[in-house]
Amino acid sequence: MVRAAVLPAVGAALEIAEIDLPDPGPGQVRVRLAAAGVCHSDLSLSNGTMRVPVPAVLGHEGAGTVVAVGDGVTHTRPGDDVVLNWAPSCGSCHACTLGEVWLCANALKGAADVYARRASDGTDLHPGLNVAAFAEETVVAVNCVLPAPEGVPLTDAALLGCAVLTGYGAVHHSAQVRPGETVAVYGVGGVGLAALQAARIAGASKIVAVDVSPAKEELARSAGATDYVVASDDTAREVRALTGKQGVDVAVECVGRAVTIRTAWESTRRGGRTTVVGIGGKDQQVTFNALEIFHWGRTLAGCVYGNSDPVRDLPVIADHVRAGRLDLGALVTERIGLEGIPAAFENMLAGKGGRALVVF
After folding, report:
1. H/E element holding 333?
2. pLDDT of 260-291, one tens digit each?
3. Are residues 139 and 116 in contact, defined by beta-carbon separation less than 8 angstroms?
């Protein structure tokens, strides 16, 4: 048996419980977790903003060590350090054939499976976003693990599974920030901090961080922000003022609220680009009129998982980490145990801190 944070129902509080994990079956591996990041997507799953079969063990950003493998598994073995990949591509759906593996139609198919049972009563449990990282150990499909990069501490490597791939990808793949361009990042959480570092790596000349909390300024500047704006009704004007009233070339929205998306769009220059990373609810309606769309010539784009291919991008990001260009530890503002996840959710709701990291 292993300990896990179980979501018994949508909207319910997480419960720390013992669960029974089966031995890995054909094509599966069992992983002992070293660390798991607490992502805003986990909060969105728990409160119903995103749908998930329940009861479930959440957590999708993690890294650990393989302890057992099932039949047919050949490319990893016990003792290997791995990063969990919560959205493995199938390679055969329409999106995959176009090379857009981040849009794979079958990536989350495993989330509906029963992967474990609650030890106390035998209740079936689902694996959250495929990998159920809020547990001491997990059993996943072999395509849900990737080799952990050498030279990167395993606890830090957990952040590569979502926050860094998403923030880095939003800047380099979706927005395609070019050297000398100006960038604004809305929301200084784990993904936002990764996006700030990515903008610095891309060679942005000015990087404006925007957040509701004045307390995050030092955190943002340490990640690469050259300027900091506390969100208000006048945010777009303040950001434009920092660029000679023209507006930034690129805005990256990491919040998922209609007002923030609209503000990010308004803070870009004529012809500017806005990438929306944040996941909002169906009630968050963003409106534009036809004339302003024509006049401003701006681009508004959604961004899933940073438009990243983990197989391709993890080695590239690892090179940045080893070279000191990307600091994974700078994303983490709190290291907790499983019992600390509910408080981490509350801090996210309150806009406090960066990434909370569950360390096992």
Report:
1. strand 332-336
2. 999 999 999 999 999 999 998 889 999 999 99
3. yes
pLDDT band at 217 (very low <50, low <70, confident <90, very high): very high
Determine the Cα–Cα distance for residues 198 and 150; give it in Å rounded to an integer: 21
Torsion of CA 337, 133, 13, 20, to 10 degrees: -100
DSSP-derived 3-state class of residue 16: strand
**d(C-alpha 154, C-alpha 65), whole Å:** 9
CA-based Rg of the chain, rounded to a whole angstrom?
A: 20
Distance CA 327, CA 270 (A): 33
Q: What is the DSSP letter of 21?
A: P
Q: What average pLDDT score do residues 9-26 get?
A: 95
Q: Are 340 and 203 in contact (CB under 8 A)?
A: no
Which residue in this structure is represented by tokens 């990438």?
A: 275
The predicted-structure confidence for 111-160, as pLDDT tens digits, reads as follows 999 999 999 999 999 999 999 999 999 999 999 999 999 999 999 999 99
